[in-house]
Amino acid sequence: MLFVVCFALWLLLSGHWDAVHLGLGAAAAALVAWLNRGEEDVSRAARALPRLAWYVPWLLGQIVRANLAVVRIVLDPRLPIDPVVVRVRAPVRQALAVATLANSITLTPGTITLDAEDGELTVHALTPDGVAELESAVGRRVARVFGEDGSAA
C-alpha cells in the first residue's frame, strides 16, 4: 500500500510519464516502502489518505464557520469574549492522529492547542462554545480518518 501511495504521489508531483521518470518513480517508491517495511505508523498513515481527502474539505468549512463566529464576537459592541483554557481527552491514540487533531484545533480561529501530552490536549478558546464542538465533532472526524473508534485514549 505504501508503495502504491508513494508511486501515485510521485506521478502526481512529477508530471512526467516517460519511461525514465516512471522507472525512477517506481524505484524511489520501492525504496521508501522497503525502508519503512517495519513501520506500522507509515502504513496506517497511507491507509488514512483517502479518508483524509474527505476530512480536509470538512475542516475548511469549519474554519470558515469559526472565522465568521470570531468576526461576530469582535464586531459585537459588548465583545462577548469568555476565554477558557481546558484539558480535553483526545479521542484518538495514534501519535499522528493526535497531531492532526491538535493542528485542526489550532487552524480553527478562536481556538489554539497549547499542549498535547499523554492523550490530553490543553486548549485555549475564546468562548466555551468553541470547546464543546471540538470535543465532539472534530475529535470524531479525526478518529474516523485514522480508523479509530473515537473513544478516549
Main beta-sheet strand count, sense and barrel state: 3 strands, antiparallel
Number of helices: 5
Stretches with pLDDT under 50, minimum 5 residues: none
**Sheet with most strands: strand arrangement:** 1-3-2
Share of residues in helices:
55-70%
The H-and-E topology, N to C, reads as HHHEHEEH
What is the global morphology?
A: elongated
Helix-strand category: alpha+beta
**How many structural domains?**
2
What fraction strand? 5-15%
Can you describe what's shown?
There is one protein chain. With 153 residues, the chain is an alpha+beta fold. It has two domains: 2-35, no CATH class; 44-145, no CATH class. 63% of the residues lie in helices and 12% in strands. The chain has helices spanning 2-14, 19-35, 40-75, 95-107, 128-145; strands spanning 84-89, 111-117, 120-125. Strands 1-3-2 form a three-stranded antiparallel β-sheet, covered by helices on one side. The two termini are 27 Å apart. The model has no long low-confidence stretch (mean pLDDT 84).
Which features would summarize this protein structure in a list?
2 domains; elongated; alpha+beta; single chain; 5 helices; 3-stranded antiparallel β-sheet; 153 residues
